[in-house]
Amino acid sequence: MFQLHPTDFCGQIIEVEGDMSKGFPSLQIVGMGNKAIDESRDRVRSAIKTSSLDFPKGKLVINLAPAELPKDGSHFDLPIALSILCVGGVLNPKRLKFMRFLRVN
Fold first, then answer.
1. Matching SUPFAM superfamilies, A to Z (predicted)?
2. Helix (H, G, I), strand (E, B) or coil at 14
3. What are phi and psi of 52, to 5 degrees?
């Protein structure tokens, strides 16, 4: 999953990677995100539940790469939600393999 993040007048492609393992159910988003990215955990969890989909049970880690680039804004919510649904087995990742999302200001 990829997200285009504007940097100055150019964009930067951000890869949204997901992983789920056994453990205490949690959602962690890593990759130098700001407060809006931290808050997306609650927005995404709520959106998945209100869409009548099952939120995966397990330890979820979402990585926003490259890690050295600061990320901000709620426009990462959709790629994060799709990554969660893919690693949870709700969506087929092959159907989303080349999907890209563009943020336009």
1. Ribosomal protein S5 domain 2-like
2. strand
3. 60, 30
Q: 35-50 and 77-87 helices cross at what angle (nearest 10)?
A: 60
| Predicted TM-score of the model (pTM) | 0.82
Domain 2-102: state its class.
alpha beta
Give the CA distances from residue 89 to residues 31, 54, 60, 70, 98, in Å, rounded to whole numbers and listed in that order.
23, 10, 13, 29, 18
Q: Domain boundaries in the chain?
A: 2-102
Residue 85, both tokens: 């649904």
62-105: pLDDT as tens digits: 999 888 888 888 888 998 999 999 999 998 888 776 666 555 44
Q: DSSP states of 49-79 as a string? A: HHTT-PPPPSEEEEEEESTTS-B-SGGGHHH
Q: What angle do CA 16, 61, 74 make, to 5 degrees?
A: 50
